[in-house]
Design goal:
The protein is α/β, with parallel strands linked by helices. The chain contains 14 helices and ten strands. Strand 5 and strand 6 form a beta hairpin. Helix 1 packs antiparallel against helix 3, helix 1 crosses helix 13 and helix 2 packs across helix 3.
Amino acid sequence: MDHESRSALVMSGGGAHAAYQVGVLRAITRLLPRHAARPFSVYCGTSAGAINGTVLAAHADDLREGVERLTRVWGRFTVEQVFAVDWKTLANTASRWLSGLVLGRLGRSPPLALLDRGPLEDLLATHLPFADIAHHIQGGHLHAVSITASSYGTGQSVTFYEGAPGQRPWQRADRIGMAARLSIAHLLASSAIPFVFEPVIIDGDYYGDGAMRQTAPLSAALHLGARRLFVIGAQSPVAQGPRPYGQPSLARIAAHVLNSLFLEGLDADIERLERVNQTVRALARRGLPAPAGLSEISCFTIYPSEDLASLASAYYATLPRALRFFLGALAPHGRADAALASYLLFEHGYCRHLMALGYADAIRKAGPIRAFLGYPAQGAAGGFETGPERGVPS
């Protein structure tokens, strides 16, 4: 695929919210003609979106197969597959936090995270063939894939990428791109939500969730040569429904921080991109060339049409009891905040609901999606049902 027509799939983070992205992707595979060419040659992800993107890159020769694999995993998820939630582990963490705070002056420090992601590391090792990424690059099925993390040492947003020969690293204000042989460590670093999951060491530096300090989420795709961006967000741009007022609980403050991490940077970058596009188009109408380095970038965005925190309320009781007790401790009278819980609700009922929502949202935009991806108006839509518990493996 030539540079001018190269398309990138960009996926943001959001913990369990990323199940929505899988639903959108499943709709895309149903909308495209059966023998259509691959719609994306660049995959860029942050946090949980990086996990989804890397799975697709590892199956770059067959988008449908990659999406099917994601659907099977997300459709059968349990929290225990992502982090340890037994009473003993959580009690030990709480004890270490308390003793670290009380005895900190004596040299004991609290742990750096609330939850242990050992199970997720095992799951990724089982389902993600990293070696296939290089194979697909060599075979021309894939141009590049990137994973963005945040360096606690330098304060920079660091995009690790694996790409075709000739792809050059980049450096801008507070963000850099560097070549790497991608691994589980990069995914764990990119999805290490602060205070919730431990930082990850890569080449001697500690990294956390890629949404931190990520002021330009679209930048990596552009540096990797894409001029057409298909962006799947993982939460609603505008919160819907009534919101509580008064003094916030620890749980609500934590949810507010996470909402800011996973949404605001993407929205702002899309607005900047559209302003650049408007400038380029205005100059073209006057017969004037665009300034050096500026060109029009096509961008299609899709976000959840419903508030995911509200949806999480119906599935809160499916969380393991120990985790519900722990989350309840962060809120007055034990009433845990659904917005915070929604990021940790890696339970198949909730994930299936989000996938069904993503599928339905994409089907409603079938015409614009086909047009953006350059395929005929008539495609193979399939018979995928969109009810909350349908359309995914049981």
